[in-house]
Amino acid sequence: PAWARRSIHCDEFLAQRIARFKVPRYLSISHSPLPRTASGKILKRELQAMAINSVAG
What we know:
Blueprint lengths: L1 H16 L26 H13 L1
């Protein structure tokens, strides 16, 4: 599938530019905008909840 090829390209791209221990284990590609506060900051707790829900199924 296209998403698998894209994640392989991301892994290769990151591996060439940052240290190996900094390359993320998992990549999530989403077309929806990140949850933000009224001042524009990213809501990290909501991101964490979204990640847990996507892994749980």
